[in-house]
Amino acid sequence: MTKQYTAIVLGATGLVGKALVNQLCQDDRYERITCLVRAPLSKADYHDPLNKLHPLVINFDELQDYQGYFSVDHVYCCLGTTIKKAGSRKAFRRVDFEFVHVSAQLARAQRAKSFVWISSLGANAKSKNFYLRVKGEVENAILTMPQLNNAAAVRPPLLDGKRKETRRGESIALKILRFLSPVMKGALAKYIPVPPHQVANQMIGLQVF
Q1: What is the pLDDT at residue 163?
Q2: Active site includes 135?
Q3: Which of 30, 44, 80, 91 shows the smallest number of beta carbons within 10 Å?
């Protein structure tokens, strides 16, 4: 009998998170997918005919209290926000650094087979851009963490998908990049926006089966 895998997903309601959960639900290798969420999932957003999906509403400020749920094969972390949405740089860092870092620590404590999370193209702990600097800092913190099995970061460019909230700057950038994408070759190709399902597929490909 082929081994069946279990996974936990943090950030299941975001663009990549939704795409990821739907792909996991269709993946015959997985038998159970636990989602830690802030609010109940909308069933309309997920196709789960085999009832693999098990959402759990939690307080992420007390994430460490849910350590037992990280006793799975694969941990997927899709957590992320924006400074505007978070309300301050401190609140942004709380989500994009602290919650992601704690998730990695819990994966290590429960000896998950692998930990994959979403970073960003251009992530650099020495960047002058606050967003990219935080992304780089969490990469450094996780990738140098001892005894964490198979940690890998996905570094997507701008996501080309429909969000519930309006991000005016992102929308303008997307329009420009979509227009320019046919001529973005060579080193510029990495800046072409990608659909969420492509990032989700890459995350699954980085897990250890």
Answers
A1: 62
A2: yes
A3: 44
